[in-house]
Amino acid sequence: MKIYAPFAGIVRCHVDVGEKISTGQELATVEATKLESPVVSPGPGTITRIAVADFSDVIGGDLIMEIGEA
Fold first, then answer.
1. Which domain of life is it from (predicted)?
2. Which of 43, 52, 59, 66 is the most exposed place for a label (fewest CB within 10 A)?
3. pLDDT by residue (tens digit) across 18-70?
4. CA 23 to CA 62: how far, in whole Å?
5. What is d(CA 21, CA 68) in angstroms, rounded to the nearest whole number?
6. How far is residue 67's CA from residue 17's CA, in Å, rounded to a whole number?
């Protein structure tokens, strides 16, 4: 599964590569002008790639991370 930024802002990741995650777990937060939006996992799995650095700027639709099978 690929996880994308919901809108433009600054991203903070809350997981690491290799970490096992569950459905609904908060993976990252995107912040823009005092608005913070959690990015949650749509299903269980393992983080296989983090495509952005913490506190980097993203635009809506940018790839944040990838999740492999559990």
1. Bacteria
2. 59
3. 999 999 999 999 999 989 999 999 999 999 999 999 999 999 999 999 999 97
4. 21
5. 10
6. 9
Please identify which residue in the block is written with the tokens 């299903």: 43
Q: Would you state the structure tokens that stand for residue 33, as one six-digit string?
A: 């002008």
pLDDT in tens, 6-32: 999 999 999 999 999 999 999 999 999
Number of Cβ within a 10 Å radius of residue 41: 19
What are the sequence ranges of the domains in the chain?
2-68
Judged by DSSP in three states, 69 sits in coil
pTM of the model: 0.91
Give the tokens for residue 57. Answer: 């700027």
